Every structure is written in structure tokens, then in C-alpha cells.
Amino acid sequence: MESLDETEETLRGQALVWKHMFAFADSMALKCAVELRIPDIIHSYGGRPVTLAQIASRIPSASPGTPYLARIMRLLVRKNIFSANGCPPDGSPESHETLYSLTPSSRWLLQGPGSELSLAPMVLMEDHPWLMSPWHCLGDCVRTGGIAFEMAHGRKVWDFASENPEFNRLFNDGMACTSKITVRAIVEGYKEGFESIGSLVDVGGGIGGALAEIIKSYPHIQGINFDLPHVVATAPAHERVTHVGGDMFDTVPQADAVFMKWIMHDWGDEDCVKILRNCRKAIPEKNGKVIIAEIVLKPEGGGMFDEMGLVFDMVMIAHSSGGKERDELEWKKILEEGGFPRYNIIKTPSLVSIIEAFPL
Ligand SMILES: C[S@@+](CC[C@H](N)C(=O)[O-])C[C@H]1O[C@@H](n2cnc3c(N)ncnc32)[C@H](O)[C@@H]1O
């Protein structure tokens, strides 16, 4: 007969499977809250806790499904995306209506006032059916060694973006919002690193958000935002930033230093080495450097973002063309082959670290 401990352990095992089987329900409830702008609605009441009816009244619909909303909010409260308490809204003891407030998590989901740093566009991007469908192909990736995004959409992610303006916008907006957040952290963690640089090229810089943020803190830097032509074609103008369209596998514009955020993780080792060699040609040999903002995997690490590093590695299987997240040894190998034998890793208060690498 099983002991009580064994029964408990078995049941916990079962509960864990249920949890992971439906983990996507968390993502979908989160996406729903962002689509309906629930964080903005709560915020619009000026910081006071609000009732469900008050939230529902600001959803643009003639007849919002309030009972659905209540159930979605109940889950999101349990997940600490929102908080709820039963304080009476009018002070009377008989009223026990639930009142909802923002938490430190939902403050990252604002899209209107107060949303300078927001992950909302990233939620809308990552949880869109276009980016969800390749996740169903992980098994086929293992079976065939193929590329999940191509299996789902018949072409690579960058070709899909160049043919589909709506996806292009969704993707670039998602990237730009995370850039703003991580660049703040990068500037905090790598203050002196940018000081001696006169010109900086952001390779694969998207619509230029990261470079614009860096230059806000370092107005002496002349920035070149370099990305594929269909991406820079939609980029807004930023002060002291020139947009240049091209292909980093052909050539990279010249500058004192290269910045690359979330580029190398999109590619396999051979492609990374090609990109690094082009970066090396673009900077002065003596005092040039590449500043790479990427995850440095610590698979067993206990840091706040270490588990997310492993999740991002799955994102790379689902969305990239042969890319992966790398641990320090893997970084060292491609840096050396790409012409950067010397490097430092600097931690920042974000998902990514800075890998500062030198040609000599
Ligand atoms: C994951 S996104 C990162 C964007 C930006 N660095 C950021 O972190 O927000 C990768 C970027 O690489 C760009 N890219 C892909 N292939 C490229 C190529 N061959 N040459 C230049 N840029 C490329 C994409 O258009 C995209 O903007």
C-alpha cells in the first residue's frame, strides 16, 4: 500500500501536469486583459480601487459580458496580475463588492497615460496566433531538425514580416517596447561603457527605439540604426539617429562601436560568426568594440530571470531560424571565431546581460 507521503507526491505530480497542460490559459487571460486595456481602465480611475461594473463601463461595447470579465479577473488576481479586496465601495458594511487595483505586474501593461515603459505590445505580439502557431511544431522540429516558423507559415520570420505589413508592425512594436525597458537597464548597468564612443551602429536595431534611448542618455553619440530595408522604411525619425537599410550578412556600417540587442540569439553559430566578422570590419581594430545585449544562460541559476532564459530558448526554437540562447562557454566560442578574443560580461537589472567584446 502507498504511504500518505507517496499518495501526496503522486497527486502533486498529477496537479503539475494539469497546471502545465493549461499554462496557456494564463497567457490568454493576460492577452485578453491587454486587448481590453483593463490595466488602463483601472489606472484611469486615478489609483482608486474599482468595481467590476466600473471596469465594464469603460470597455467599448454596448453590452459587455461582465460575468466573463469577472471570471477572467478572478484568475488574473490569483496570478497577481491584479489585486482584489472586498472593501465596501460606499463604506457601508453590508456592501462587499470586490474592488480591483493594479499590481506591480499590471503597471507594466499600461498602454495609455503612465505607459512609458510597457510590455503590452510584446504581449500582443507573442500571444498573437501568428506567433503561437509555430509552437505546435516543436515535435516536428525534433523529428526533422526543421524550422518551426517555416513549418507553420511556409517561410522564415523575416520574409513573413517583409510580406505582411500588419505582422511587421506587430513585431517591430513588440521589439521596440522591450528595447525601451532593457535599454534603461543597460544604461544603468553599463554607464561608462558608452562614454568613450563617438558613433554607434545598432545592428538589427529595428525601428531605432533602443538607439534613441541610448542617445537620450549620451547626447554626444551619433547613431546609425541599421536593419532590413522593410523595417527601417517604417521607422520614425529620432534625433541624431540615421536609419540605414541593408543586410548584416553583406556588410555593416562603419562606427566606433557596434551595439546588437537580441540579434545573435536569432541565429545559429555559423551565422553569428559571419555577423561578428562583419562587425569587426566595421569598427576600429585598436579601440573598437561590440556591445551585445543578450541573455547569458544559467540553466540552474536562481536569479529572477534565469528560468525565463530557458523559456526564451524555446521561443528561439519556435520563432527564429536556427537560433538559441547561449551560456558563457557558447558565447566565448562564437566570439573567438568571429574575431573577438577578449570579452567581459556585465549584469544589468533586466533579462539581458551586456557582453562587451574587443578585437584585440
Ligand atoms: C529580435 S529582433 C531585435 C530588434 C532590436 N534589436 C531589439 O532588440 O528590439 C531582430 C532584428 O534583426 C533584424 N534582421 C534580421 N535579419 C537581418 C539582416 N540580414 N540584416 C539586418 N537586420 C536583420 C530584424 O529585422 C529585426 O529587427
How would you explain this protein's 3D organization?
The protein has helices at 4-21, 23-35, 38-44, 52-57, 66-78, 120-126, 129-132, 138-144, 148-153, 157-163, 165-189, 209-217, 229-232, 269-282, 306-319, 328-337, and strands at 82-85, 99-102, 199-203, 222-227, 241-245, 257-261, 289-294, 342-347, 353-358. It is α/β, with parallel strands linked by helices. The protein has two domains: 4-109, Arc Repressor Mutant, subunit A, CATH 1.10.10.10; 120-358, Rossmann fold, CATH 3.40.50.150. The strands form two sheets. The chain has a seven-stranded mixed β-sheet, with helices on both faces. Helix 13 links the parallel strand 4 and strand 5 (241-245). It is globular and about 70 Å long. The model has no long low-confidence stretch (mean pLDDT 94). The site of S-adenosylmethionine has 17 residues, from helix 11.
